[in-house]
Amino acid sequence: MASPPTDTGGHQIALLILGGTSEAAALAAQVAAMPDVPALVSLAGRTSAPLPLALPMRVGGFGGATGLAAFLRDSGVKAVVDATHPFAAIMPFNAETACRAAGVNLVALRRPEWAPVAGDRWLDVPDMATAALALGREPKRVLLTIGRQELAAFAAAPQHHYLARMIDEPKAGHGLPDLTVIRARGPFALADEIDLMRSAAIDTVVAKNAGGSATEAKLAAARALGIAVVMVARPAKPGVPVVETVEAAVGWLKDHGILPTERGV
Ligand code: NAP
Fold first, then answer.
1. Could you read off the pLDDT of 210-256 as tens digits, one per residue?
2. Which of 91, 93, 94, 113 has the most ligand 1 atoms within 8 A of CB, as the residue to mutate?
3. CATH architecture observed for domain 15-111+236-255
4. Bridge partner residues of 18 (DSSP)
5. Closest protein CA for atom 36 of ligand 1
6. For the whole model, what pTM was predicted?
């Protein structure tokens, strides 16, 4: 399926979805199935080949909170759904500031965090720099499932072998002397995760606490194999209304008069 055009410059839109997640794509599909809802998905443009979306989309930053507020006013936006990745640290705050300035309703769509269960060997850390330190002095075989943006944090611990899984190639200059890259996009199956960890003799997994089912199998695989997981916590988020599912976001948009209700009001 081809994506719709990448810009709707100048058109009036009722709903802006700040994307980057599978939930944003699922919400876009639900909105697209409803009649007469002018809506747009915005992507930062970090992924070279984003998955197709059911709604029109635009790509690239707005120019901070001020630029986003101007966009909201110019486009007549009535509501924003912040469905950026749980590890997006700036955009949620820009959205909160811009929506407050422009008088636009805002809700964040954030999937619940993963929580450890019996048998897990997790070490919770606040950020990627601490994760690198937490690997210790002895050389380890580490599976990095953190994407490509923060790879360079592990240059501070060059004694380990890193197997890094990511959607796109890492940028040059990450500084990791012993790095193997696997390019793949989830969802991943448990049996495949176990195979990967076994065949690469992984002893530690570094993961971001993204939540969701698409990449959860690595945690079950680590549990099954007794492998340690260094779990990086999510960055701080602004205090805005939060829903945890696409269905709840649809309900919120109906409650706020953005999407039609079953009775057409
Ligand atoms: P970020 O640090 O919160 O945002 C950095 C800048 O990117 C923002 O200030 C904004 O630029 C622009 N931006 C972010 N999201 C945008 C969107 N949906 N539409 C237009 N511009 C956007 O976010 P990030 O960590 O760089 O992530 C960027 C995107 O990749 C997000 O959409 C996120 O959902 C996705 N993503 C992130 C991660 C991750 O781990 N961080 C993982 C997977 C996917 P301006 O200030 O110029 O508007």
1. 999 889 999 999 999 999 999 999 999 999 999 999 999 999 999 99
2. 91
3. 3-Layer(aba) Sandwich (3.40)
4. 42, 82
5. 85
6. 0.88
